[in-house]
Amino acid sequence: MKEIRAIIRPTRLPHVQAALRGITNYPALVVGKVEGFTAPPSIGPRNLKEELTDFVPKVLVSILAPTEAADAIVQAIMQHGRTGKIGDGLVWITPVDQAWRIRDGAPAETMNTADKVTD
């Protein structure tokens, strides 16, 4: 099992979400509002506006998925989260050794579509 995390532009979230729904074995996602900035040396000269407003709103997406679905999920996030401009974000994968559903204590890898809760 893998955890896929991505920091993306808030305006790209609907596009990423729509793309993820089309992936087989796509389980669900958690989204949080975050703020961040890119290290100045990596983006070159900054203007006055950037100096005064260091933190930019972003969205942190977290997905716990079967290993076999991870690559497709990352590709969907990269393709549909991209604008081609500095600040598009970052995506990474972390291995998950174990996870359990709180509701019944079942291992998360046994979760299927019928187990998803919408509220």
UniProtKB/TrEMBL annotation:
It comes from the Bacteria. GO terms for biological process: regulation of nitrogen utilization. One of its GO terms (cellular component) is cytosol. Pfam families: P-II (PF00543). Transmembrane segments: none annotated. GO terms for molecular function: ATP binding; enzyme regulator activity. This is P-II family nitrogen regulator. It comes from Parvibium lacunae. The lineage of its organism: Bacteria, Pseudomonadati, Pseudomonadota, Betaproteobacteria, Burkholderiales.
